[in-house]
Amino acid sequence: MRAQAGAGSLLTEIDHVAIAVRDLEAAIGYYRTVFGAEVVHREVVESDGVEEALIEVADSYLQLLTPTRDSSPVARYLEAKGEGLHHVGYRVADCAAALQAVKDAGGRTIDDAPRPGSRGTTVAFVHPKGAFGTLIELVQE
């Protein structure tokens, strides 16, 4: 049985952990060969300039991300920091309410308002400079 989110918590579950990679096919092959994991969803998100491959892990995902253009945030991340952990996505019941709660608490956001994400979700990003160095994605299914 899964533990319930804390009373009043806006975060309901971990939606995904995102890893930035230069070679998406190689990363998919690694997870398939080493862990027997298969991609359950693949999508190009033009607005973010990325291609993603999702590997289901229990009720969450491992999101492998690669840039589709040199100007994308993931391309800039790879250039500056190399491959590795890019962000953590947390599920929320209401993305707009969660984003507003971050702003009301004095948090720094990347998105001013929620926007469409992959898999038909609604998302918004919280800036890592206000979140102890971690880029956070708020995900409403």
The CATH C-level name is Alpha Beta
* Backbone structural class: alpha+beta
CATH architecture: Roll
**Beta content:** 35-45%
Q: What is the β-strand count?
A: 8
Give helix and strand order, one letter per element, not per position: EHEEEHEHEEE
Order of the strands making up the biggest sheet: 2-3-4-1-5-8-7-6
**Fourth CATH level, the homologous superfamily:** 2,3-Dihydroxybiphenyl 1,2-Dioxygenase, domain 1
Uncertain segments of ≥5 residues (pLDDT<50)?
Answer: none
> Structurally, how many domains make up the residues?
1
**Radius of gyration of CA atoms, rounded to a whole number:** 15 Å
* Envelope shape: globular
> Helicity range of the residues?
10-25%
CATH topology: the name is 2,3-Dihydroxybiphenyl 1,2-Dioxygenase, domain 1
Task: Enumerate how many helices there are, as a single number.
Answer: 3
Mean pLDDT: 95
Largest sheet, described in full?
Answer: 8 strands, mixed
Characterize the structure shown:
- There is one protein chain.
- With 141 residues, this protein is α+β, with helices and mostly antiparallel strands.
- It has a single domain, classed as 2,3-Dihydroxybiphenyl 1,2-Dioxygenase, domain 1 (Roll), CATH 3.10.180.10.
- Helices cover 22% and strands 38% of the residues.
- It has three helices and eight strands.
- It has helices spanning 24-35, 73-81, 95-104, and strands at residues 11-20, 39-45, 50-57, 60-67, 84-92, 115-116, 122-126, 136-140.
- The protein has an eight-stranded mixed β-sheet with strand order 2-3-4-1-5-8-7-6.
- The chain is globular and about 45 Å long.
- The two termini are 22 Å apart.
